[in-house]
Amino acid sequence: MDRPLELALEFLEAYSGYEARDSAGPDSFDESDLRQANRGGARISAAEIAAILERRGEIEGALRKIRPATSLADTASAIPWLPLTRLFDAFSDIRGVGFSKMTKALHPKRPALIPMLDSVVQTYLTSDDPGTRSSGSFGERATALVRSYKQDLDRNQPVLHEIQEELASREYRLTEVRILDLLIWSISAA
Fold first, then answer.
1. 83: Cβ–Cβ under 8 A, 6 or more apart, which residues?
2. Which residues of 65-84 are buried (b: 16+ CB within 10 A; e: fewer)?
3. How many whole angstroms separate alpha carbon 155 and alpha carbon 104?
4. C-alpha distance from residue 91 to each of 85, 171, 186 (Å)
5. Which residues contact 116 (CB under 8 A, 6 or more apart)?
6. Do residues 86 and 65 lie in contact, with contact meaning Cβ atoms separated by under 8 Å?
7. What is the pLDDT along the chain (190 residues), one digit of tens a residue?
């Protein structure tokens, strides 16, 4: 990719309001988290919010099993894949809620671990890795996408870290996971 820093900066300048999100806390999950996801474009309906909040206890229990500082940049063995799958499974079978809405709501809770698996990112991940189209539970399919995302993150770690430092010098505090999201969007929009 040519000019990754410039692409990230262009994206941030156009959509900086989404990056200034405030979360209710790393282990809590409530309506404010879903409303914030909506401000970022998730389009979660009132009925979907109610259905998700019925699972609040399950979601918060799963979040507590994943340290807030856990990063997808960590070694694969350091990532709590099973608790992550359980967290994703807490959203299964909620009518109208797929990977995009779920991860837009969860990303601020674990920003260094959970990418936003919207349709653009899913298309990018599945085009190169047929294994991401696996069968299994909702959580297993989402985790397969995150594992594929990790491979891309690992391949690009030095560049992502460099971009992260450059963005920080400009007062943008983003995880490498979010930076990769921005770059995937930028190349997909081109």
1. 62, 65, 66
2. ebeeebbbbeeeeebbeebb
3. 24
4. 10, 34, 28
5. 100, 103, 104, 107, 181
6. yes
7. 688 999 889 888 877 655 555 567 899 999 999 999 998 889 999 999 999 999 999 999 999 999 999 999 999 999 999 999 999 999 999 999 999 999 999 999 999 999 999 999 999 999 876 666 667 999 999 999 999 999 999 999 999 999 999 999 999 999 999 999 989 988 876 6
